[in-house]
Amino acid sequence: MMRRPAYVLSxxxxxxxxxxxxxxxxxxxxxDVTREPDWDGPRxxxxxxxxxxxxxxxxxxxxxxxxxxxxxxxxxxDVEVGRSHLNVSEWDHEEKLxxxxxxxxxxxxxxxxxxxxxxxRARLSPEEREALATGLAATFGTGTAPHHHExxxx
Length: 154
Known about the structure:
By secondary structure, this protein is mostly helical. Helix content is about 45%, strand content about 0%. Helix 2 (about 40-50) crosses helix 7.
């Protein structure tokens, strides 16, 4: 009876070691910034960097667990998917969700709940959430917030 738990623990340890050999999720790259959007102000940029930047820019902070499988696989996939939808560090490429960003923030779909559990700095107060959403609407021109330029009619 006592040998079974030891066998199970040994098998689990071997499995954890073996999955570390999978070559996905540990080569974290933060490519150069080619161009950022014309932010409506520094506050929007700061809130975006704090709450969204790890997945939607080339300035990802890679925590220790992003180097250990299987967590590394999930983190790598989340960053790849996030950057493919919206990457404010490569604004010279076609963006797919830029105009939806304010709506996703307001609906509390972004940042996702599972990200917030591990990243306390990304948690926004209701006022910060609204400031970010309003700033994103102004930056990306979604029309969900006042957005006036000097050349716009009053």
